[in-house]
Amino acid sequence: MLTRIYEQVKPILDSFLAGLIGLAMGAIIMAIWGYAPLDAYDALFTAIFGSFYGFSSTLARATPLILTGLTFAIGVRGGIFNIGAEGQVFMGALAAISVSLLSLPSGIHVLVAIIAGAMAGAIWSLPPSFLKITRGVHEVISTIMLNWVALYFGMYAVVEWLGDPQRAEKSISAATTSRLPIMVSGTSLTYALFVSLAFSLLIFFLLWRTTLGFELRVVGQNPAAANYAGIKENYSINSTFILGGLAAGVAGALQIIGHPPTYALYSDLSTVRNLGFDGIGVALIGRNHPIGVIFAAVFFAGLNVGARTMQITAGVPLEMVRIIQGVIIIALAAPELIELTNQLLPAVRNWINEVKTS
Amino acid sequence: MPKTDTTEETDTGRTLLRAEGISKGFPGVWEHLILNEIDFDVKEGEVHTLLGENGAGKTVLANILSGFYGSTAGKIYIKGEEVELNSPQDGLEHGVGMIHQEVMLAKPFTVAENVALGTDDSDFSYPLDKVEHRVDQLSENYGLEVDPTARVGDLSAGEQQRAEILKVLYHEPQVLILDEPTSLLIPQEAQQLFKVLRGMADEGFGIVFITHKMEEVMEVSDRVTVLKLGKVMGETDIEETDEEELTEMMLDEKIPIRLERKEFEEQSVSLSVEDIYVTGSRGNTQLNGVSLNLHEGEIFGVAGVSGNGQSELIEAITGLREIDNGRLIIEGKDMTDASPREIQEKGVAHMPEKRREIGVVEPMTVGENLILRDYRDPPFSRLSVLNRSAITNHAEEIIEEFDVIAPDIWKSETRILSGGNIQRMILGRESWRAPEIIIASHPTHGLDRRAVSHTWELFIDLRDRGSAILLVSEDLDEVISLSDRIAVMLEGNVVGIVDSDEADKSELGMMMTGA
User: Is the pLDDT of residue B87 over 50?
Assistant: First the structure.
C-alpha cells in the first residue's frame, strides 16, 4: 500500500527534491562568490510570497509559461521533441495585434483575438509537422529554424506593418475592446490567467479522456504498438504539433491582450521572447503533466520575478536565478543520477564497514 | 598447478576444447534448466555440429564456451587445461572465437576499423594500414572475400558475416564457433561458407557449427551433438547416423492428444493468401509465394522452426508488413494493401508474437491496454470521449475470466505485469468479441499449464462457434492438438499441408527441417 502511494507521488517528490537541490546549489555558488545566500533567498521569497503585489506579478508571469509549458508537454506525450513554442508565441502575438485592427464588440473581440493567436501558432507548427511526416526531418532542427524565421518576421512586421505612428519602438496597442480586464490593479495580472488554467484543464481532459488523447499517448509511448492497434501515426503526430501550436499561439495572444500596461509588442519582441524556451523547463519540472505544468510555471515565474528584488536588496546578480533554474532542470533530467546514488550508497557503506572491521 | 585432462588424445586429433557438466539456470525457476549437465568437445580438424530446435540451449552453450556468458556449474578445458572464461576477450585469448547469429559490427565503420575495435595493441596510434594488410592476408588465405576498406553498412549479409569471421580470425583462434551462420545467407553464400569451414577444419581448426537445418548437418559435419530442452540427447559421428534418427532425437517422443471438437465440415473461406511475396526486415525475401486458405470454423496450424517466414506471414496478413506480390483476401474482399486498422475492422483479431513490444503499451495502465484495439468503439468511447466506467467493467470482466493478476486497472502500469499476465490480457482482449478471424502467434508461449489448457479450451470453443483461427506455434504438440489442418513452413515456403488426424510428429519434424 505504502509503495503504491509512493509510486503515485514520486514524480511530485522528484520535482520538489530537484527544486531543493537547485536552491542548495545556488546557495553554494552564491557563498563561493561572496554573496549572502540567506539574505538573497529571503529577498527572493519575500518578493514572491511576501506581498499580494508580488504574488500577483508571479501569476501574471506564469500565465504564458503555463501555455508554453503545455506545448512542450503535449509534444513529449505525443512522442515529439517540440521546441517550436518560441516562434509560435511570436506568431500568436502578431495575429492578436492584427485582429485588434478590426472593430468588434468587446466580448467577441477578446475571443477573436485568442482564436486568431491560437490559429497562428497552430499554422506555424504545420511546416515542422509536414516535414517530419513526409521527409523525416527531425522536429528539433525544423522548429529551431522556424523560431528564427518567426523572430525576424515579427520584428519586421512590428516596424513595417503594425508600428505605432506615435512611438517608433512599439507596435500599435490592442484595441480596448479586445483587452482582458486587469484582476489586481497596479499589477499586470489579468483574467488571462484563467484562460491559461482553462487550457490546461482542457488538455488534461483531451489527453486522458478522449480517443484523440489516447491515440496521441500510444503513439508517443510505442509507435509499433500504435500501428498494431490501428492508430494512424502521422495523424497523431500532426495532432500533437497542432495542439502544441494552439497552446503557444494562445500564449502569444495573451501577452498582447492580457498584458498591461502597453498591450503591444516592442520592436525587439522583448515581452514575448524566451517564453517558449522557459516553457521547456516548466514542462520538465511539471513532469509533462498539464496540471503539474501549472505549478511548475508558478514556481518558474516566481524565480524570475523574485530575481529582480534579489538583485536590488541582496545585490545578487539576476543571472543567479538562471543558474538555480539550470541546476533544477539538470537534477530533474537526470533520474539516472538518483538511481546511481541509490546503487552506490550501499556499496560505499559496505566499503566503510569493511575498512572499519579490518 | 592446473588440472590436466586425461582423455586428451584420440585418433582424429587433439581435443581443443572440452566442456564438462555445464549447467545454466536455476532449478525450480523454470520448468527445466536452460542447460543441464552438458558434456561437449571439439577436436582439431573437425566440424562438430550442435543440432536442436529453438530453445534447446544451443546458443547459450556457445556463449558459455566463448566466454560471453558464465555458467552456473561445470568446467571448461582448453587443450587439457582448465580455464575460466569471464569475457569474450578471455575466450579469444584462449583461442576460442564466436561468430554470433546477429551481426555484431559497427555499421558506419569500415571492415578494418571494426577489426581494429577488438584489438588492444593500439593504445594511442591507429595502425589501420597494418590491420587492413592483415585482413587482406586472412581473407586471401581462407577464401573470405571482403574489402577491408568497405563500410560494413554497405555490405551484403554474406559479406558482413565474412567480415565478422575475419574479425575473429584476426585474433588467431583455434576454435571457431558459428551460431546459425546460414540464417542470413542465400544458398550460394551458404555453400561458399561451408567450403571455407571445411578448408579451415582441414587446416587444423576446431569448428563448432550450430544449426537446426538437417541438410546442413549432413553436408558439413564430422560429428553431431543433439540438444533438446537443455539436455544432450545424443552424440554421434555423421557416418553412423541418418536424418531420420537425428530428427527423432531432436523432437519429443510423447504423442500429442487431439482435443475433442465438433466435426470439421469445410465451410466458406474466411481468409485466403494467394501466392504472396514479402520482404523481411533485412531486405531479403522472406515469403516466396505462399498460398493458403483459412476456413470458417477451422483451426489452421502453421508449424516450422522460427525464422522460416511465419512472422512475416502473420505481419502480411495483419497489415503490418507490405505485400510485394500476390493477394490477401479477407471475407471475400481484396485486402492486399489494407492498413492494420482496415484489416482489424474486417473482424481480424491478432495475438502478436512480440507481446511487450507491440502487444501492449507498457507505460500505460492495464485498463488502457485492455481497450488498445477497441477504444474507438462504443461503449468504450462515444463521440470521441472515453467512457471510464464502461472500460472499467470490461477490464474487470477480462481480468476475472482470464485470471490476470493486476493490482489496479487505472493505476498499475502494464510494465510491472509478468509476461504470462500480459499474454492473458492479450488473449482476453483479442477474443472477447468472438471475432470471425483470429491470427494467433505462439499464444501459449510462457504460460503455465493451467493457462495453457485454458487457452486451448478457449480456442476450441471459438472454433466450434465459427471463428477461423490461424495458429502459428513452434510447439508441435500444440499445433497437432489444436489444429484441423497443418501447414509446414520452411525458408519462406509452405512445404506441405497435412490433415491433423493423419499428422505424424516425426514426419512433420522432417518437413520442418527440410530432411
Answer: yes
Positive or negative, the Cα torsion across B20, B25, B26, B28? negative
Q: Domain tally for chain A?
A: 1
Interface test with A, best of B358, B380, B416 (most A CBs within 10 A): B358
User: What integer best gives the mean pLDDT of chain B?
Assistant: 86
- Mutual angle of helices B128-142 and B157-169, in 10-degree steps: 110
Inter-chain residue contact B363 with A221, CB threshold 8 Å: yes
Burial of A44 (0-12, 13-18, 19+ CB in 10 A): buried
Question: What's the CATH code of the domain at A143?
Answer: 1.10.3470
What ipTM did this prediction achieve?
0.84
Checking if the pLDDT of B467 tops 60, the result is yes
Tell me the average pLDDT across A64-89: 96
User: What are the angstrom distances between the C-alpha of B118 and each of B78, B112, B114, B156?
Assistant: 22, 10, 7, 22
The C-alpha cell 520442418 sits at B512
- In chain B, which among 356-385 make CB contacts under 8 A with chain A? 357-364, 368, 372-373, 375-376, 381, 384-385
Chain A nearest-CA residue for B413 = A7
Asked if residue B134 is part of any domain, the answer here is: no
Most B CBs within 10 Å, among A228, A231, A234, to test the B interface: A228
Is B372 in Cβ contact with A224 (below 8 Å)?
no
Write the residue in B362, B373, B381 that is nearest to A229 by C-beta: B373
User: What CA–CA distance (Å, rounded) separates B55 from B475?
Assistant: 11
pLDDT at B285 over 80: no
Contacts of A219 in chain B (CB under 8 A): none
Q: How far is CA B284 from CA A7, B140, B491, in A?
A: 46, 28, 11
Domain assignment present for residue B252? The answer is no
Give me B301's grid cell: 496450424
Q: Are B389 and B489 found together in one domain? A: yes
pLDDT one-digit tens code per residue, A36-55: 888 888 888 888 888 888 89
* H and E: helices and strands count for chain B: 16, 22
- Contact list in A for residue B345 (CB cut-off 8 A) is 230
In angstroms, the CA B512 to CA B495 distance is 8
Q: Is residue B393 situated within a structural domain? A: yes
Q: Is position B154 within any domain?
A: no
For residue B452, which of B495, B491, B403, B411 has the smallest C-alpha distance?
B403
So what's the pLDDT on residue A345? 67
Of A230-244, A274-288, A327-341, B185-199, minimum mean pLDDT range: A327-341
Instruction: Provide CB contacts within 8 A for B85, sequence distance 6+.
Output: B64, B65, B66, B67, B76, B91, B94, B96
Question: Rounded to an integer, what distance in angstroms lies between the CA atom of residue A45 and that of residue A24?
Answer: 14
Out of B341, B361, B368, closest to residue A230 by CB = B341
| Same-domain status, B376 and B498 | yes
Range of the domain at B448: 269-513
Check residues B206 and B104 and name the one with the higher pLDDT. Answer: B206
CATH of the domain at B235: 3.40.50.300
